[in-house]
């Protein structure tokens, strides 16, 4: 590739001949800094081409990849060291933020896929959709479930960013959440209020960023939000009031909605409409103010201040109703803890049973149905596993003598294999500590060893005898002095010198070595559809952590101090007739 000419102006003026396919931005910056004769170094030079600041990026992108062409004009401006460092730090922060968003989206996709399709969870918990009463719900197809689950996870993460005042980052996460919800069938989304609340949160971020460029979009979003809330809550929240036993959880949400509608109307020069919305929002703000006497009563009963305020706000400041609400919430949390413990046990049980040929977990409810009519747990689980959780087909196999016998043989074979794998893992663990592995002819069966009470200093025999690596290790460390006094033979050994122990052979049926991974469809004889994925544990923990903090009322539980200040500010503007523009901060 030949040399190309770049026309430089500003801190240094002249023409540089460079190879666009070889030169990078740092190389060009260093050359311009050297020719300018300035002592500040390359970090004090900014390069602008075609109205765009040329950034270092990863330092390996070539000028041609950045759109720099032959005879391009580049402005070189000199900045002080602090400003140069600031630009660099800003660039790095932008890259870090972009990387984090990519990780967040990937983690949300991974979690939603694992927990929406009936696959065996790799964690000790399961993500499930619930209604406001805490009851599990199934909304639409597997794709719909995944879309809603992903949208909820991203929305929860965005709310955490909003609480930290990181509105720009929150807005980007909310946008991803909106995209996720859009993948769901429209009629299902219209049944819930999550999307309207997300729309309100997006406009709140616009407002807190003071970005006037979003004005027209904000109006459209707020109109959709109001329509969505009315559709899901009913006219004047009648349906919600019925479901919530006369409570008023939505007041703070409508306060924020009306405030934002008033702000948009004001900046659209619709003064009367703005005044009407702001006045209504102010009335709701006053309605949410907590009387000191009511709060003191609840605090005196031992309730935390945050819980007491929430209960009073959602019950229209009525103390008796607030107490009932707090008692009810405490009972819900207790039930949730019990359900979580029960679900953890079920997941552990499912992991023992393995997965179906299509990679699904054994359905515990269907499994319990078969157990309730008299079938053994493992038999019922294996029958369901083989038949993709089809209860009728599983029942046919269980009542067919030949099929039932085949299932029992398979279960025993699997037990033997698992025991063998566990023993081999223990043996390898002790060998790695430096203990010798004795030759095959001296491997003794655990039964013979226990009967003769011998203590043989071999790793294999010790594990066979004592069952666990810890017990074997205790024996090996404590009984080595007795080893030389014993020379034991085993009458149960086969002709090849190996004991007739089901654990003696560490090869699986197909001749492959022992596999210490958890049992799945592939290890149980069926085809495995489980794919190995790289999990971003840190980001997944962040997402699930936010979900664990929330409950059915989290979306309605808003601290409205900032809203109150904004209401007063805009009511004053409307009253005096000022027409003040929000300064864009983008």
UniProtKB/TrEMBL annotation:
Comp. bias intervals (Polar residues) = 479-495
Q: What is this protein called?
A: UBA domain-containing protein
Q: Where is the composition biased (Low complexity)?
A: 510-521
Instruction: State the organism named in the record.
Output: Anisodus tanguticus
Which GO BP annotation is one of this protein's?
regulation of ubiquitin-dependent protein catabolic process
Top-level taxon of the source organism? Eukaryota
Q: Where is the UBA domain?
A: 289-329, 361-401
InterPro entries associated with the record: NUB1 (IPR039749), UBA (IPR015940), UBA-like_sf (IPR009060)
User: Which region ranges are annotated with the description Disordered?
Assistant: 478-551
Q: Which residues cross the membrane?
A: none
